[in-house]
């Protein structure tokens, strides 16, 4: 077909620079093509080479990925882009566009899976959140929307195991040039994309919120089996529905809602049984149904009652680690309250109210400050921006670096 047949010691050649890439392993495979681990003999380096299928649509999309990543690489210094994958080279080999990247390790989904879907301790959730936010500040600053943030597209840097980088700008676009309407992977899809409402960089912050929750829970927060199921879960867990003006102006509202006496009501009767059936499945049963990931359900978390799965409950009632000392339990409880408050600003239906990366990075969950009342970020002005730069670089309560 449109793939190259790759085998160990197969050599890809950049005809321009005469650089050779010797295939050593296959790292990933997708609709776009394949990712190979390659050895560069001249520098004795290992890199990841994404080899795009020989088809015009993929070629164009991959060229956009090259230009966006090159722009990020040029515009920002090493420190600023330390949580974004580095593009090293690109070339055409036998009609295939090839892009070489720094070699990274496992992705966050694999990490969650290795941990048996039990979720990570809060200090790790915080550390990863900080780093993804750092990348998102830079991405938004460049006027880019990533459009496909999810655990699979966040990779652990191979050397330092606890440092992560955002990859896969294959769906990314410039803010203000939002051409496609069918974007983002379903579990991480924002309400405005789902409903067909003009979208902005705020869609990445929705996905980010979903990822933070998943890092803690070990399971996706909104594991919608369909778009309808997805919306139904959002409404259940967030305890509200999207604001009326969004529903009024969105293109797909009628696919989901019926207007009764001027009030939008989810058309749910038909779907209720299907949704209930899915929610009652165990993780294993759900996977057996060829769904990609297990789901938060009645039997998986036996404390969760389908009728009142609220965000607060999902986080606060998540089983505590065993053998915690009393003061550790108190600390954990306080941290969980912070996490709920943090998530509330991210999985916010109204994209205009959803926090920006800078606003989110000043939240007590990230800064380590005490949370006395719900966080209310100041508007994003130049002044806050300057202050934030200082906070981001030097205030470092998590113990690690960004
Ligand atoms: P797609 O657009 O098909 O999702 P990605 O860029 O996400 O393509 O790459 C697909 C997979 O290849 C990733 O999920 C990851 O497992 C692997 N991969 C991609 N880039 C790298 C890299 N720099 N280092 C190691 N593995 C990578
Ligand atoms: Mg990907």
TrEMBL record:
One Gene Ontology MF term: ATP binding
Keywords from the UniProt entry: ATP-binding, Kinase, Nucleotide-binding, Serine/threonine-protein kinase, Transferase
Keyword Nucleotide-binding: yes
This protein's record includes keyword Transcription: no
Protein name: Serine/threonine-protein kinase AFC3
Residues noted as binding ATP in the record, renumbered to the chain: 50
Gene Ontology cellular component annotations, sorted alphabetically: cytoplasm
UniProt domain Protein kinase: residue ranges: 21-366
Residues of the full protein shown: 110 to 511 of 971
Highest rank taxon of the organism: Eukaryota
């Amino acid at each position: 077909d449109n793939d190259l047949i790759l085998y160990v010691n197969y050599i890809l050649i950049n005809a321009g620079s005469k650089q050779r890439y010797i295939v050593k392993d296959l790292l990933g495979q997708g609709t776009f093509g394949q990712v190979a681990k390659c050895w560069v003999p001249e520098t004795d380096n290992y890199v990841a080479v994404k080899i795009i299928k020989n088809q015009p649509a993929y070629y164009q999309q991959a060229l956009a990925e090259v230009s966006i990543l090159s722009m990020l690489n040029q515009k920002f210094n090493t420190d600023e882009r330390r949580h974004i994958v580095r593009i090293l080279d690109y070339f055409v080999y036998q009609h295939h566009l090839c892009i070489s990247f720094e070699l990274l390790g496992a992705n966050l989904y694999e990490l969650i899976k290795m941990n048996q879907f039990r979720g990570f301790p809060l200090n790790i959730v915080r550390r990863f959140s900080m780093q993804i936010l750092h990348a998102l500040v830079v991405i938004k600053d460049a006027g880019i929307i990533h459009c496909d943030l999810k655990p699979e597209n966040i990779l652990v840097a191979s050397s330092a195991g606890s440092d992560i980088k955002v990859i896969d700008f294959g769906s990314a676009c410039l803010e203000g040039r939002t051409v496609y309407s069918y974007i983002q992977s379903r579990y991480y899809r924002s309400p405005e994309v789902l409903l067909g409402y003009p979208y902005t960089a705020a869609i990445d912050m929705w996905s980010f919120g979903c990822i933070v929750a998943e890092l803690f829970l070990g399971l996706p927060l909104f594991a919608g089996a369909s778009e309808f199921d997805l919306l139904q879960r959002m409404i259940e867990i967030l305890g509200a529905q999207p604001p009326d003006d969004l529903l009024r102006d969105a293109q797909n509202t009628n696919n989901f809602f019926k207007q009764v006496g001027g009030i939008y009501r989810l058309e749910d009767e038909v779907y209720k049984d299907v949704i209930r059936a899915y929610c009652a499945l165990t993780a294993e049963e759900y996977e057996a149904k060829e769904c990609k990931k297990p789901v938060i359900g009645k039997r998986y978390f036996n404390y969760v009652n389908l009728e009142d799965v609220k965000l607060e409950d999902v986080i606060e009632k998540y089983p505590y680690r065993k053998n915690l000392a009393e003061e550790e339990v108190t600390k954990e409880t306080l941290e969980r309250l912070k996490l709920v408050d943090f998530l509330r600003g991210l999985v916010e239906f109204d994209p205009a109210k959803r926090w920006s990366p800078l606003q989110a990075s000043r939240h007590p969950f990230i800064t380590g400050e005490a949370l006395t009342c719900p966080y209310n970020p100041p508007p994003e002005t130049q002044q806050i921006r300057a202050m934030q730069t200082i906070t981001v670089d030097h205030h470092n309560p998590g113990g690690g670096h960004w």
